[in-house]
Amino acid sequence: MSTCCILGLGYIGLPTAAVLARAGHRVIGVDVNAQVVATVNQGQIHIVEPDLDQAVANAVSSGALSAQLTTATADVFMIAVPTPFRSGAEGIPQPNIDNVLAAARAVAPVLRPGNLVLLESTSPVGTTEQVAQVIAELSGLTTEQLHIAYCPERVLPGRILQELVSNDRVIGGLTPVSAEAGKAFYSSFCQGALLTTTARTAELVKLTENSFRDVNIAFANELSLVCDRLSINVRELIRLANHHPRVNVLQPGCGVGGHCIAVDPWFIAAEAPDCTPLIQTARRVNDGKSSWVIEQVQARAAALEDQLGRPARIGCLGLAFKADVDDLRESPALHITTELLVAGVDVLACEPNLHDHPTIKLHTLAQVLADADLLVFLVAHSPFRNLELAGRIVFDLCGVTEPT
Questions:
Q1: From the candidates 4, 5, 206, 254, which is the catalytic residue?
Q2: Model pTM score
C-alpha cells in the first residue's frame, strides 16, 4: 500500500482520507486551517456526514491517518481543495483555481520521480495541464517523470463514504501511462468501474454531469412557477407525469446549491459563452427561483401583518443546501434567509445540523414551531418530516410536508 498526502480536509478530502486509511494506505492530511488539523488529530470531525466520525476516529487511533499544516513526502498526492468562482464579464462568473495552483506549489518541493499526483477538485478544462506546468517550473520534474491525472469525485453528501467506494470513476491522465497509474491506485479502494481517458475529457465530464442536473432542475423549478400561477400542485403534477415510461422530471426546490451543481455550469459557460445559452439560462432560472421565494415570503409576511396587527414572525426551516447535511456552500436557503433578514423581516431561523452561525441567530425547531406565524420549509431535513401542522400556515418549497 502507498503513503498518500491529501491536500484539503473538507467535504471530499476528509472522507477520502478515512476511506484510504481503511483500505490500508498511510494517509497524511494537509489543511491550511490549524483548527481543522487539530480536530482531525484528535480523531474528530468538523463537518456533518453520516458515519464519518467513527471512520476518522478509527483511522487516527490506528495510526493510519494524521493531519498537518504542510505537505510531506509520499507516493500519491491528492488535491481536493475548493474551486470557487469570481464575477466576470457579461454576467458569467469565472472559475477561480487559485487554491488548486497553491496546492500544486505546495506539492512541488516534495515530489520525487514516479509519484502520482491526482487532482480531484472540480476544475475548468485545462487545469490539470496548469498544475503540471507549475510543478515542472518548481520541481524540474516533467510529465514523463511523474504521473499526473484528473479524477473528479461524484459523490452525494449524506452518502459520501459509500459512494467513494461504489461509484464509477473517470480517470483522465496527461499521458496514457498516468491514466493507468491513477486507475491502479483507485482500484485499491474503489469497487465501481474505473474508466480512463484524457485529462481534458475528464475535466469536462465532471462539469457535464452537474450541468445536466442543473438544466433538469431548472425545468422542474420553472414548472413550479407555472403551477403556482395556475393553482396546481406541482408535486402531484410531476408524480403523474413521471408515470410516462420515458419521463423523469426532477423535484423543484427553493433554488440550487452546493459547490457542484450551482457552480460547474458556469465553468463551461466561461469557456464557451457563445455556445451555452441553455446552460446559462438554466443557471439563471435556478437562481431566479430563490428571488421568487423571497418575494413570496415578503408578500405573505405583509398580509399576515395586516391580519395580526403586528410584524409577522417567519420561521425559515433549513439553511443547508440539501437535506441532512451542514454544508452551506452556495445554499439558496441561506441566501433566502439572509435576504429576508436584511429586508427587515422578523425571521426565526432553524438549521438542526449547525450549532451556530456567524451572522444568523439559530433557533431550535421547538422554538420555531412555538413562535412562528408562517412556517417556510426551505430544506427537507429529516426532523422536519411528520410534524403536526394542523391549523398552521405553511409555505413548503421542498416537499417535506407532502404525504409520502
A1: 206
A2: 0.90
Residues in CB range of 225: below 8 A, 6 or more apart: 289, 292
Residue with cell 506549489: 105
| 206 is known as an active-site residue | yes
Q: Of residues 4, 190, 260, 316, which has the active-site annotation?
A: 260
Residue span of the structural domain in which 33 resides: 3-192
Segment 200-242, tens digit of pLDDT: 999 999 999 999 999 999 999 999 999 999 999 999 999 999 9
pLDDT 10s digits, 174-204: 999 999 999 999 999 999 999 999 999 999 9
Is 260 catalytic? The answer is yes
CATH number for the domain spanning 160: value is 3.40.50.720
Contact partners, residue 341, CB within 8 Å, separation at least 6 = 347, 360
Distances (CA, A) of 36 to 42, 100, 153: 10, 19, 21
Longest Cα–Cα distance in the chain: 74
| Residue type for position 146 | L
Burial of 31 (0-12, 13-18, 19+ CB in 10 A): buried
Are residues 36 and 138 located together in one domain of the fold?
yes
